[in-house]
Design brief:
The chain is α+β, with helices and mostly antiparallel strands. It has a single domain, classed as tt1808, chain A. 30% of the residues lie in helices and 30% in strands. It contains four helices and twelve strands; from the N terminus they run H-E-E-H-E-E-E-E-E-H-E-E-E-E-E-H. The strands form three sheets. Strands 3-6-7-8-9-10 form a six-stranded mixed β-sheet. It has a four-stranded antiparallel β-sheet with strand order 2-1-5-4, with helices on one face. A two-stranded antiparallel ribbon has the order 11-12. A hairpin with a 2-residue loop joins strand 4 and strand 5. The longest helix has 20 residues. The protein is globular and about 45 Å long.
Length: 168
């Protein structure tokens, strides 16, 4: 499919786009959706006092022929284009059961190559947080943007999930 058609077309569930091919995204679970909402709600308080903009599932242009929809993007300031092509300050990816490790690492590598300085991964199954350092995933007990006073501890991320879905 030509990129112009992809950008013009309306989809029931927006796919990602790679060099002429549509890529279906894994279907989110209830917990995945809860975690997306958590990050959007939790981070929005910083948008009022600083120059941050938090958005969910926004189509962004990584490069010519490559469009993706991160679960959450945090931008310094507000994008000046409806289809941003400048990297956000941070990207949050919440894993879905259908995500494969190889596909995840490839996507995170694209974010890193694009210039995203903070790449965060949330694993609902293991209830863990990881950061991508450009080569591999590293476990962490909190996500932070120190310059903005933002710190999100693992326990806080999974509090509501653990209340509704206790691990057995």
């Amino acid at each position: 499919m030509p990129v112009e058609e992809y950008l013009r077309k309306r989809f029931e569930r927006e796919p990602e786009y790679r060099d002429g091919m549509l890529e279906e995204r894994p279907l989110p679970t209830f917990i995945h959706s809860l975690l997306q909402i958590f990050f959007a709600q939790h981070l929005v308080k910083w948008t009022e006092v600083d120059t941050l903009t938090v958005v969910a599932e926004l189509r962004v242009k990584l490069r010519s022929g490559r469009y993706v929809l991160p679960d959450i993007c945090i931008f310094e300031g507000a994008p000046t284009d409806n289809l941003p092509d400048l990297p956000p300050l941070a990207v949050v990816e919440v894993l879905s059961p259908d995500d494969t490790h190889a596909e995840l690492i490839a996507k995170l590598g694209e974010y890193h190559q694009w210039g995203v300085p903070n790449i965060w991964v949330v694993d609902p199954d293991s209830r863990t947080l990881q950061v991508f350092d450009g080569g591999r995933l590293q476990p962490t007990d909190a996500f932070s943007l120190a310059a903005y006073g933002i710190g999100i501890p693992q326990a806080e991320v999974f509090r509501k999930v653990n209340e509704r879905f206790p691990k057995s």
